[in-house]
Structures are given as C-alpha cells and as structure tokens.
C-alpha cells in the first residue's frame, strides 16, 4: 500500500504536476496561434518569438523593479512587470499589423503570403530580442520557490516520496485558468467578442452584418499580445528564458492548436494538455515508478523510458502527423483542411 | 531586357566579391563564394518547390542535414569492429521499425474501420516498438562503447565523398516523400508546420544517435574531394605554379584549394540549373506552373494536383539534400549543433524571395546576394556600432553591449529585407518570365 | 418610380460583362422574382443591386435615392439586407447569436425584433441556443433570413433561398416570405424553382444571357406559353 502511494506521489511530482503546468503554458500559446488563424487566417510563425519579445520586456521591468527594491513578497516580481510587457507587445503587434499585414489584407493576398510575412516579423523579433537581452539564458524568478516541498510532505506523511509544487507551477495554473475564463467570457458574452467569433466563422457574412474588420483584427492582436506575453512569462518563470527555446516552442504550440482544431480556442486548450502530457509521459523514465509497483526482485535495470528526452519534439510531431492523417480538422472540429 | 538585368546583377555580385578579395582578403572572398554557390543550389531546390508549385517548405534545415549525414555514412572510413559488434543489430533494428510501420499501414488499409482495426494497429505499434528497441538498444550501445573518445560510431563506407552528394539527395528525397505523402493535399500551412517539425527531429537524431553520427562529439576530418594544403605545399608542380604566379606557396595553397572547391560547386550548380531550366521549359514544367496559378481549374482538368506536388516536393528536397552534402564536404566535418533554423531554413527562404520566386536565375542571385550580406553584415554592423558609440567612454556598459550585440542586427536586417521585398517588389530582383 | 430600381445595369466580375443592360425594379411590399436558365446572370443582377460587383453603366436607386456608389455595408445601413445562397449563417454560433450579429449595427433594443423573427419562424425559438451549423438545411435558411431581418430592412434580397431544401420546407419558406412581404418589406429573390416562385411573385423577371427577356406579373408569366415552354418545362 505504501509503495502504491509512493508510486502515485512519484508520478504526481514528475509527471502530473509538471505536465499540468507545461500544458497550461502551451494552451495559452496555442490559443494565441488559433486566434490569429481564425481571424487572420494564417499560421503565425512569429508567435514563439512574440512570446520571447513580451517576456523579455517583463524581465527588463522585473529587473527595474528589483533594483528599486519593489517586490511582491512570496510571488515573483514578474507579475508586477507583466502589464508593462503586455503593453509593449500590443504596441509592437498593432504596429506590425499596420505596417505589414494590413497591406496584404487590402490586397486579399493568399494565406501563404501572410505566412512568409510572419517569417519576416519573426526575424525582426528575433533580432530585437537578441540585440537587447542577448541569446543566453536569463533567470528572473524571485519570491518563494515552493508552495509544497517534497521534503515537508515526506516528513509529514512518513512516505519515501513526496510531491513538490513550485510557486511558478501553481501560478501558471491559476493564471491560465483566470485568463481562459476571462477570454471565454469575452468571446461569448461581449459584443466585440461575438463579432470576432462571427468574423472567424464567416467573414463575408460578418462584413454584410456591418462588423468592422479593422476593429476585429486589432482586438485579435491585442488578445494575442496578452496571451503570448503571459504564456511566455509563465514558461520563463517555470523553466528559464532563452530566446531560442521560445522559437522552438513553435512546434508543440502549432501541434496543440492543430490537435484541437485550428481556429477553435477551446480545442487549443485541450490540445495543449494532450501535447504536454504525451511529451512528458513518453519521455519520463519509469524506472523508480516500476520499482515501487512490482515485487522487489523484478526491479528493471534500464531507465524504462519510452523515448529519450532529446526527442520530446518528436512526440509533438508524431501526434501532429497522426491528427493530420486521421482527422485533419482536429479532435474538436476546427476550420476546413 | 531580362538578360541584361541578369547580366548587370551578376556583374555587380562579381565586383563585390572581387572587392572583398582586394580589400579584405582573397581567402575571405573565396570562402564567401563557395558558400554562395552552395546557398544558390539550396535556393534552387527551394525555388523548385515554391516557384514551380507554391509549396512552402520550412524544413530546409532538415533536408540539408540529411545531406550532411550522407557525407558521413558514405565517405568516412568504417570503424574497426563496429560493424561486427553492433552494425547488423542497428540496421536490423531500423529494418524492424520499418516493418512494424509498414504492417500498421497495411493493417489500416486492409482491415475494415472499427474497434478491431484500432486495437490491431495499436498492438502492432507497441510490439514493434519494443521488439525494435530490444534489437536496436544493445547494438547501438555496443557501437558507442568502441573507443568513444575517437570513434564510438559505425563510420561510413569509405567511398569518395563526392558519391555522398547524390546519396544526400536520395536521403532528403525519401524524407520529403514521407512528409509530402502526409501533408500535401491539406492546406499549405500544414506542410509548413510538418516540415518545421521533421527538420527539428532530423537534427535531434543527428545530435543524439551517437552510433551513427557521434552526436555532439561531431565527426571531424572528413575526406576531401580536393587536395590538402600541406600536400600541395610540398608538391613540385604546385610550387612551380605559385612561383610562376609570383605567389608564396603556403598562402596560395589555401586559395588554390578553395578554387578547387569553387570549381566543383560551380559545376554542380550548372548541372542543377540546367536540369531545372530544362524541366521548367518542358511540358511538365508548364503544367506545374499552370497548376500553381490555378489549382482549381487544373483539378477540374483532371490533373492529379497532389501527385504532381509530391513529385515537385521530392525533387526540390533532393536538390537541398545534395547541397547539404556539399556543405558538409566543404566544412570537412559534421557538427549537428551548427544546424540552426534561422540560418538553414529561413535564410534560404529570404534568398528565394529576394532573388525572384519562380525564376531559377533569381534563386541563384538571391543565394549570392543574401549570403554575401549575411557574412559582410557582421563587420559592417560592428563598424557601424563603433561609429555610433564613438562618443561614449571606452568602458561604457551600453557601448560594450551594443558592440557585442551587433551580430544580432543582421537577423533584424534580414527580416526587414524580406518584408520590404515582399511588399514593394514581390517578384524579387529577377522576376519570373511569363 | 418603384421603391427599389436597378436600371440598365451592365457589368461583371472584372472580366467579360455578365449583365447587359438589365433592369430590375420592385415596389414597396412587393415580391419580385428573377428566374431564368443557368448562367443567365440572375444572381449577378442581384449582387449588382447590392453593390457586390461593379457596374459600369446604369444606376441603383433605393426610395428615389441614388446608391450606385455605396458599398454593400453602407447599403445595409440604408435598409437593404441580403441573404447569400450558401454560407449564410455563422455555423459555430447559436441561433440567438446569429440573430444578434444580424443586428450588429443597431444600438437600440433588439429583443422586439428578435421576438418577431421567432414569431415568424417558431422553430428557431426552440433551437435558439443550438449552433446554427447543427441545424437542418431548412432551419438554417430560416436562420439566414431571420438574421437578415434583424436589421429591420426595407428591402430583403434572397439568393436562391430554396436551393437544396426539400419540397415541404420550400413551401414553408415561401409562405414565410409572403408573410415577410405583408409587413411591408420589399422582397427581391432569385429562384431556380421558377414555377413555385412565380406563383408567389407580384412581379417576375425572366433573364437570358444578362438581359431582360420577359417582365410581367407572376401570374401572366406563368400563363405565357413561351415562358412555359422555354423555362417552366411545358
């Protein structure tokens, strides 16, 4: 019995808790991608770098606040810096829309043109981020590190394993829930939100109904900036900030959005968790876990790992390929293939 | 008119390279030229996909890396004992993996949809996975255990490295076929995302399958298709040649080697260009462009668009794989960590767009121009930063930061160039002949 | 002068002209129907009246006002509503939200109009929380018409409203269209089911190759032997 409990704690500590946090981060990223897809109808290759851009400003403001001695006690100062990062990202995205995408909208360009333009934006963002903060790892988490420490739990329960929950993980989940709730309230209950859904559903009919496309697009970019900056900051607090890592997040984020059905925000959230859980469960070494649940002398010798951690991107990719093969519109129906 | 434009642009390009030769050094100029040539071939490959068919491939890096892998597998000498210890196990493991996937595919096609089919496929996949691992794991570990500091991998076939070029193309072609089969026919974004994914995975394989590529320990000292400098310096005809040119043999030897590479690459470029131009002008090429310009009506005319797209996607990737093998040949080593998407995928895209999508000459010009500025932007950027910061004190933190970060400016510059060309001159420097 | 007039319209979608001096007009509260063979330019004529393509001669008048240069959106504000043939609802939005979107430009209380729509199409009231994409073809057409009515239009234009719906649903739809017309709304409709459409039409236009071939009341056209022979299958 105690072994089973230990096994459960072990799994919670190394699989469930991290996957929930990572899944929330992916979900927020994927909702951003899916919104752009639904409204502007292209896959935004600059999304990973948008996250990096927003997070970088959050870090810079965090440092500024820290130098003034401003902090939030147990919570990371980054929370205080978040609004500033979001505002700068909003300004950048609205500016890039005005200077780049608007022109192609007026011309009714084919989707792939937007895609290439987003690659251009990606380069620019990449350059700005590396120019300002450099290509290296930055840590900016402060405040308390843990909500629950594994050690405390072990002492309390007298078990061999315990569950630790980092502040960043708890914060990620709580923030994600709040953000998603506000987002869905906005999309389902407000006039502007409904007009965005209408625009995403049927652009021509939305225009016939008098919905202003410029406003819909602007609101979309604002939402994308908010989501991307929050997702990027949470990821950075949980792990660390490195511009290239954010670029690499593009693949799991796209995979999440496609699994959930491009253009479908609810699907994107589900997709984020599907990808996060698969990635972590497939690359987790189950050696210790198996040792707890099998009789003593059956202990495995190897790591009992399905796939080396190095191949975590392969997991997103394989799921992506399976979805494309069998359900190209995603698990939850999204836009047409 | 167009020929004139071709001529003017390429003359300017030649003058720029000569300028670098004169004012910086001929070694630098020739290094740039060699990579310009390889970039041009890669851009040609991408242009076949994009210009002929409108396919957006974001996995160029992966296809180029497969070319690099081919260079290792073909040209490196076999490692003593590696094949005996684990070679067959490793190959057997791969074959088992292919068999399980094929079985799953056959089951999917033969059985009727339903719960039994799903269960069968999942069972095949799970059993296949573990059986493959049982054979594959110990074999690769055994290979990696052989003198890990120096080899620890299978090595190659010990063939001339030039042979690896077509093999690189073949590898890339196979990968492209698989990806194309899955994503072509769906919307264009899916091809882009899937190619982005496969290229990351190919790089992950190169980094972590030590038995095959030594992973991050790199494969160095690959055989060359051209003579070694040290050998040249002691060869009589070469000393005579440099004397007659009034050059000093040691310096000239490295220039000579680079010229040899350049000639080989030039030859390859011309072959690929000739083939592409012939293909473009053939009925096949006309049909491809017709499909690109109006997919709907081509579909209506009974052309199998997806099949044609698959052809063109594989062909373009073959060219990229070829160029990837050439690149590794030039480097003389395979360093998996050097494959960065911005440099290997997106930069090539900028070449194609800037050069002129749909026009082979444009792709070549784009390869030259963008590579040239990619390299020269760095000294220029540092120079610029030095000028901008000249008013600041020597040890000013901002000044040091700006100078150190100057290298990143070129990313931004490339992005701006792409956006500007796309907006104001979407047909590129050398527009497609209509 | 009629309430809605499209006079001597010539134009097309960029390439060759599809309309050649075609004229359409409808009085207030009248049902006008455009029929004709495939490719005659019926839908094009209607889209021209709604401003969805450029005409280079002729003019469009609404209640005596020249609206030739206005965008479709501006025409919506002037009191015209258009129901496209396909993709005429927001599939992932509920019926109620579809209607709300129809009234997007209105800032006043729309609940009364919505009740009127529900009165006209009672089935929609039951399904008001269901997504429009999940409804049957006939119900979806009702949503589409309902959405258009939410702007309280003076002119309602329907592009083949009965395409792809069963005969029973078609009769029901036509009944509803008559009801709408009785409230004083001018209706302009393009129809494939010429016989049934002319039956309810106050005015009928038979178009051939972008030109008016016959224009008369629906009843007269139905009895015209030439029309019967060529367009109504005897």
Please supply descriptive tags for the structure shown above:
B: 434 residues, mainly alpha, ABC transporter involved in vitamin B12 uptake, BtuC, 2 domains, 18 helices, C: 234 residues, alpha/beta, four-stranded antiparallel β-sheet, 10 helices, 10 strands, 37% helix
In percent, how much strand structure appears in the residues of chain B?
under 5%
* Main pleated-sheet profile of chain C: 6 strands, mixed
Distance between the termini of chain B: 13 Å
**Helical amount of chain C:** 25-40%
* Number of discrete domains of chain B: 2
Order of helices and strands of chain B: HHHHHHHHHHHHHHHHHH
Task: Characterize the biggest β-sheet of chain B.
Answer: none
CATH architecture of the largest domain in chain B: Orthogonal Bundle
Report a brief summary of the structure.
Chain A has 337 residues and is mainly alpha-helical.
Give a written overview of the molecule.
The complex is a heterotrimer of chains A (337), B (434) and C (234). Chain A is mainly α and 337 residues long. Chain A contains 14 helices and 2 strands, in the order ααααβαβααααααααα. Chain A has a single domain (2-326), classed as Orthogonal Bundle (ABC transporter involved in vitamin B12 uptake, BtuC), CATH 1.10.3470. In chain A, strands 1-2 form a two-stranded antiparallel sheet. In chain A, helix 3 (78-107) runs antiparallel to helix 9 (213-238) and helix 11 packs across helix 12. Chain B is mainly alpha-helical and 434 residues long. Chain B has 18 helices and no strands. In chain B, helix 1 packs across helix 16. The longest helix of chain B is centred in the middle third of the chain and has 33 residues, at 249-281. In chain B, 45% of the residues are buried. Chain C has 10 helices and 10 strands. Chain C has a 6-stranded mixed β-sheet with strand order 6-7-8-3-9-10, with helices on both faces. A 4-stranded antiparallel β-sheet of chain C has the order 2-1-4-5, covered by helices on one side. Chain C is globular, with a radius of gyration of 17 Å. Chains A and B meet through helix 4, helix 11 and helix 14 of A and helix 7, helix 15 and helix 18 of B.
């Amino acid at each position: 019995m105690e072994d089973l409990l230990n096994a459960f704690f072990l799994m919670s500590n190394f699989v469930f808790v991290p996957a929930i946090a990572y899944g929330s981060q992916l979900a927020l990223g994927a909702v951003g991608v899916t919104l752009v897809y639904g409204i502007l109808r292209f896959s935004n290759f600059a999304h990973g770098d948008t996250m990096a851009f927003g997070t970088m400003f959050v870090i810079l403001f965090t440092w500024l606040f820290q130098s003034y001695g401003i902090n939030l006690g147990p919570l990371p100062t980054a929370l205080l810096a978040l609004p500033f990062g979001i505002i700068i990202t909003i300004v950048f995205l609205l500016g890039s829309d005005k200077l780049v995408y608007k022109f192609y909208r007026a011309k009714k360009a084919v989707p792939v043109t937007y895609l290439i333009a987003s690659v251009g934006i990606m380069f620019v963002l990449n350059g700005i981020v590396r120019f300002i903060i450099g290509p290296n790892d930055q840590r900016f988490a402060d405040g308390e590190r843990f909500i629950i420490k594994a050690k405390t739990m072990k002492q309390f329960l007298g078990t061999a394993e315990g569950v630790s929950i980092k502040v960043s993980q708890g914060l990620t989940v709580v923030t994600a829930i709040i953000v998603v709730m506000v987002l869905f309230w906005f999309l389902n209950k407000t006039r502007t939100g409904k007009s965005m859904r209408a625009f995403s559903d049927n652009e021509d009919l939305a225009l016939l109904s008098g919905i202003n496309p410029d406003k819909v697009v602007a609101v979309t970019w604002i939402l994308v900036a908010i989501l991307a900056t929050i997702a990027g900051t949470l990821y950075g607090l949980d792990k660390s900030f490195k511009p290239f890592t954010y670029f690499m997040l593009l693949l799991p984020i796209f995979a999440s959005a496609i699994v959930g059905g491009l253009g479908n925000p609810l699907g994107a959230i589900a997709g984020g968790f599907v990808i996060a859980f698969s990635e972590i469960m497939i690359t987790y070494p189950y050696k210790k876990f198996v040792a707890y649940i099998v009789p003593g002398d059956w202990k495995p010798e190897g790591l009992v790992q399905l796939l080396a951690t190095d191949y975590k991107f392969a997991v997103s990719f394989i799921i992506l390929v399976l979805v494309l093969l069998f359900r190209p519109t995603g698990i939850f129906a999204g836009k047409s293939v | 008119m167009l020929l004139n434009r071709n001529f003017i642009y390429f003359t300017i390009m030649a003058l720029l390279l000569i300028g670098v030769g004169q004012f910086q050094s001929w070694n630098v100029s020739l290094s740039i030229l060699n990579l310009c040539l390889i970039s041009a071939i890669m851009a040609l490959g991408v242009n076949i996909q994009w210009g002929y068919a409108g396919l957006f491939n974001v996995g160029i890096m992966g296809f180029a890396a497969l070319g690099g892998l081919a260079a290792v597998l073909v040209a490196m000498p076999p490692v003593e004992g590696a094949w005996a210890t684990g070679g067959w196990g490793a190959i057997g493991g791969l074959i088992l993996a292919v068999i399980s996937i094929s079985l799953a595919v056959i089951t999917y096609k033969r059985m009727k949809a339903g719960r039994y089919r799903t269960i069968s496929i999942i069972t095949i996949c799970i059993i296949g996975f573990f059986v493959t691992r049982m054979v594959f794991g110990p074999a690769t570990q055994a290979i990696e255990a052989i003198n890990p500091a120096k080899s620890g991998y299978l090595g190659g076939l010990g063939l001339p490295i030039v042979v690896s070029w077509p093999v690189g193309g073949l590898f890339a072609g196979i990968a492209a076929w698989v990806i194309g089969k899955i994503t072509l026919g769906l919307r264009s974004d899916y091809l882009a995302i899937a190619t982005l994914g496969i290229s990351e995975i190919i790089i992950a394989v190169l980094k972590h399958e030590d038995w095959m590529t030594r992973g991050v320990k790199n494969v160095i000292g690959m055989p060359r298709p051209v003579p070694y400098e040290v050998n040249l310096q002691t060869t009589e005809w070469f000393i005579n040649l440099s004397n007659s040119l009034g050059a000093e043999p040691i310096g000239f030897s490295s220039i000579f080697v680079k010229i040899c590479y350049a000639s080989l690459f030039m030859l390859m470029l011309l072959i690929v260009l000739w083939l592409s131009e012939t293909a473009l002008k053939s009925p096949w090429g006309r049909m491809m462009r017709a499909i690109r310009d109006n997919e709907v009506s081509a579909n209506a005319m009974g052309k199998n668009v997806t099949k044609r797209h698959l052809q063109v996607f594989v062909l373009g990737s073959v060219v990229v794989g070829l160029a990837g093998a050439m690149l590794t040949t030039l480097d003389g080593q395979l360093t998996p960590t050097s494959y960065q998407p911005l440099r290997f995928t997106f930069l090539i895209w900028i070449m194609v767009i800037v050069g002129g999508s749909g026009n082979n000459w444009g792709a070549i010009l784009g390869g030259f121009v963008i590579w040239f500025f990619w390299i020269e932007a760095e000294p220029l950027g540092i120079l610029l930063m030095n000028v901008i910061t000249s008013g600041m004190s020597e040890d000013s933190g901002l000044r040091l930061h700006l100078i150190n970060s100057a290298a990143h400016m070129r990313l931004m510059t490339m992005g701006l160039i792409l956006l500007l060309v796309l907006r104001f001159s979407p047909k590129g420097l050398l527009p497609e002949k209509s | 002068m009629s309430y809605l007039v499209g006079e001597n319209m010539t134009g097309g979608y960029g390439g060759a002209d599809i309309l050649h001096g075609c004229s359409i007009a409808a009085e207030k509260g009248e049902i006008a129907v455009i029929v004709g063979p495939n490719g005659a330019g019926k839908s094009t004529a209607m889209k021209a009246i709604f401003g969805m393509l450029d005409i280079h001669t002729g003019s469009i008048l609404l209640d005596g006002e020249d609206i030739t240069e206005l965008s479709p959106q501006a025409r919506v504000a002037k009191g015209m509503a258009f129901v496209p043939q396909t993709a005429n609802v927001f599939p992932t939005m509920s019926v109620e939200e579809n209607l709300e979107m129809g009234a997007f430009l209105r800032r006043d209380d729309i609940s009364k109009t919505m009740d009127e729509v529900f009165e006209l199409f009672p089935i929609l009231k039951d399904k008001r929380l269901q997504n429009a994409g999940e409804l049957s073809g006939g119900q979806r057409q009702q949503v589409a018409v309902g959405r258009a009515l939410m702007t309280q239009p003076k002119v309602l234009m329907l592009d083949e409203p009965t395409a792809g719906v069963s005969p029973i649903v078609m009769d029901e739809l036509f009944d509803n269209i008559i009801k709408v017309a009785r409230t004083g709304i001018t209706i302009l409709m393009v129809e494939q089911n010429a016989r049934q459409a002319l039956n309810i039409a106050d005015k009928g236009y038979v178009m051939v190759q972008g030109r008016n071939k016959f224009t008369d009341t629906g009843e007269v056209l139905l009895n015209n032997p030439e029309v019967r022979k060529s367009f109504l299958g005897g």
